[in-house]
Amino acid sequence: MDNESRNLQNDFFNAARKAKTPIAVFLCNGKKLTGRLKSFDKFTLLLENHQGELIVFKHAISTVTPSLRPQGNGGGENERRGAVLAGSED
Known about the structure:
It contains 2 helices and 5 strands; from the N terminus they run αβββββα. The chain is α+β, with helices and mostly antiparallel strands. The chain has a domain at about 10-70: SH3 type barrels. A 5-stranded antiparallel β-sheet has the order 4-3-2-1-5. A hairpin with a 3-residue loop joins strand 2 (about 30-40) and strand 3. The model is unreliable at about 75-90 (pLDDT under 50).
C-alpha cells in the first residue's frame, strides 16, 4: 500500500482524539490504562487522564477500545458506541 491509502488505526485514533472520547488501553502485561487520547504518532500514544499525561508505546499495547462508562441519564452502551463510530466517518 502507498502512504496515502486509508489507515484503519489512524482513522480510529483520529476519531477518538477529535471527539475527546475516553478510551481504554490494555497493555500486553494485562494492565488497563484509561483516559483521553491527546495525540499519537507512528510509535506512541499520548494519553491524558487524572494522573496527567502518559506516553504509551504502541508495541506494548494489546487492545484499544472506547471506554464505556455508566451514565446516569440511562444512555446505553450502544448509544455511546454509535456516537463514537458516527464521528469516524468524516
